[in-house]
Amino acid sequence: MRIGDLLTTAFASLWQRKFRTCLTVLGVLIGTTAVVVMVAVGLGMAKAQFDSIEKHANLRQIVIMSPPVDTSGRTQKRMDDTMLNDLKMLAPNAMVYPVYSVPALATVDGYESYINIRGVSADALAKQQTDIASGTTITPGGSQLQLVTGHMVKEHFWGPAGMYTPDGGTLAGQTLKLNFDTEAFGEMMPGGKTDGNDSSTKTPLKKINASVVGQLAGEAGQYSSTSDLVLADLDALVKALKKVYPGKALPNQDATSEGKPKGTFLYSEFVIETETIEEAKELFQLLKDLQYEALAAVEWMDQMEEQTQLTLAVFGGIGAISLLVAAIGIANTMMMSVYERTREIGVMKVLGAALGDIRSLFLLEAAGIGFIGGVLGVLVSYPLGSAVSQWVSQSLGSGGMGMDPATPLVQTPLWLALSAIGFATLIGTLAGLLPAHRAMKLSALDAIRTQ
Question: What does the pLDDT read at residue 104?
Answer without folding.
Answer: 92
